[in-house]
Write a structure and sequence with these properties.
single chain, Serine Threonine Protein Phosphatase 5, Tetratricopeptide repeat, Glutaredoxin, four-stranded mixed beta sheet, TPR-like_helical_dom_sf, Thioredoxin-like_sf, DSBA-like_thioredoxin_dom, DSBA-like thioredoxin domain-containing protein, mainly alpha, 2 domains, two-stranded antiparallel ribbon
Length: 334
């Protein structure tokens, strides 16, 4: 089971407690994957403001993690110092990217058991002790308490950063949109579900059909482009461009990503190279015309758009051709 969750999400902590209550069987491995609720969270962390607190989550978390009636809230409490003094609740708006790196490194170094211990320690530190889990020294100390040493040096070296970025892109491509989301095979259940729902997920999930990495990367890049994340698509395409850079499908996806991210020079170069080999590719011809139009090179764009519209008179092709022809006509009139 994959649990896609943010370490600063109260519902992730609630979901973890409910997951522990579910009867999943000893053969079920639980792996935590990164999800970021607040990508604009600052570095260093800032005190958690009142409007960012979730009183509904606070009540649910208190029910699963009872505290003395005199203790402060478990999810929200007045901001305190970075060290936290126990029982404070979440007090920091923290960027969780480094926390996700520590969680990913825990799995790589010690498997699911060590990762679970690290996740538990980070969540408790944030939601019960009021610690700043955006602070690297704090994270290193928490990881060491859970049995994972060497995190101060690992974080400074950048260990785990590429892995977390790759998983974040994969989650986005697979439609992960809630923290937590529980995934088994090809079945996903969003939200901090009751234990019986999680147990049913394991019993009834459809096994995932494993695909070669090349196919998975290609599909992920296509999905990210459809989601208007061209830079994420380019990051996904890196291994394909390195090993299969001459493949027309890979090159066309890269050209689309270059165009979408306004890297017009690279888009033009890639499309021209592609059209040398496949001059009848009407979409590549259209995209080259659009690239030149976007670069304000309308006379150069015109023949490509005319060819594309002649080969396949699709509405987008005809609209782009009319737009460029009108622009050139206006210039002649002036």
């Amino acid at each position: 089971m994959e649990v896609w969750a943010d370490m600063a999400c109260a519902w992730a902590y609630i979901g973890k407690r409910r997951l522990e209550q579910a009867r999943l069987g000893e053969d079920v491995e639980i792996v935590w994957r990164p999800y970021v609720i607040d990508p604009m969270a600052p570095v260093p962390s800032e005190p958690l403001e009142e409007e960012l607190r979730d009183q509904v989550a606070e009540g649910a978390l208190r029910a699963l993690h009872p505290a003395p009636t005199s203790a402060p809230a478990l999810v929200s409490a007045p901001a305190g110092d970075r060290s936290g003094d126990g029982g404070r609740g979440a007090t920091w708006r923290a960027n969780t990217f480094d926390a996700h790196r520590v969680v990913a490194l825990a799995y790589g170094r010690g498997g699911a058991a060590l990762q679970d211990a690290v996740v538990e320690r980070i969540l408790r530190a944030h939601f019960v002790e009021g610690s700043d889990i955006g602070d690297r020294a704090t994270l290193a100390a928490l990881a060491a308490e859970a049995g994972l040493d060497g995190m101060a040096e690992a974080l400074d070296r950048g260990d785990g950063a590429d892995e977390v970025r790759s998983w974040l892109l994969r989650g986005k491509a697979e439609g992960i949109a809630t923290s937590p989301t529980f995934v088994v095979g090809d079945t996903a259940v969003p939200g901090a579900q009751p234990p019986e729902v999680l147990a049913d997920l394991v019993r009834h999930a459809v096994p995932r059909r494993e695909l070669p990495d090349e196919v998975r990367w290609l599909r992920q890049a296509e999905t990210l482009l459809d989601a208007r994340d061209p830079l994420g698509a380019l990051r996904t395409l890196r291994p394909l461009l390195a090993d299969h850079g001459d493949d027309p499908a890979v090159r066309l996806l890269a050209a689309r990503a270059y165009f979408g991210s306004a890297q017009l020079g690279r888009a033009k170069e890639t499309l021209e190279s592609l059209l040398e080999r496949t001059p009848g590719d009407h979409y590549a011809r259209f995209l080259l015309g659009r690239t030149l139009e976007r670069a304000n090179r309308h006379p150069e764009a015109l023949p490509h758009l005319r060819l594309a519209a002649a080969m396949s008179p699709e509405p987008d092709y005809v609209d782009a051709l009319d737009r460029v022809e009108n622009r050139l006509a206006d210039r002649l009139t002036v």
